[in-house]
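User:
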Amino acid sequence: MMSFSTSLILASGSSARRMLLENAGLTVQARPVDLDEEALRRSCEAQGQTLSETAIALADAKANLATRDLGFEDLTVAADQILDLDGVAFAKPDSVAEAGEHLRRLRGRTHVLRTAVVLYKGGEKIWEHLASPRLTMRAFSEAFLEAYLEREGAAILSCVGAYRLEGPGIQLFSAVDGTQDAVLGLPLLPLLGELRRLKAIST
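Assistant: Predicted structure:
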């Protein structure tokens, strides 16, 4: 009998991505990988790849690392996200001060989150998907920004764009055009659709 759930390997240490999968009823084994993401981004840029192509390349690299020594039938999910402000990519901030600078650059403007997800079976990619939610930051005051940085502190250093939309970061925005799961880093409905097509979960 086909199962409502399935077991996935998640090539990430992201608590948000794991939460999305587990809340959907899937069993997740997290397998964080040691990838020099900045070096790969620079390589993709040198090759003239778009930020969307780079996001997919990063997800691919994570999946390749995570699928080493796995069985042929193992399903592995990997994802990556690049913040695109008019063609300029933002990396995760290294400090709270740098987070503040990122937010000042994003303030009052619309950016795109190039969010890639790939599915591997064994060591072979069998599916990929790219979502591009658009987010508009409001023209928040310096006082608000300082209070926000003090409240969030180091928690935002693991976030592209220096915000957690599932937390106080939602107050930075005036509009979000895209699904919450894609903003959080894993477009869930397309992934579930592919798992149903593969008959990995019940149809």
